[in-house]
Specification:
alpha+beta, 2 helices
Length: about 80
Amino acid sequence: MIYVVDEPDRRGFAYGTLDGHPVSGEEAFVVERRPDGAVFGHISAVSRPGRWFTRLGAPVLPLAQRWMMGRYLDALAGR
């Protein structure tokens, strides 16, 4: 765990990859309740190839991240 967000109208966490993982980076997931009652989810990801073999696939890394982001958002939406 990198950090935890524990505020009255914001909750969430961020985590990072472990040493030796094929990709080096972190992801954060935060849910925010606005004064008007609207609820927003924020997901952010930062990464780079962590091993020699993932450097070969570096051009497709952003595509994989977008695909995973879509899966996270689908899960939050109950799809």
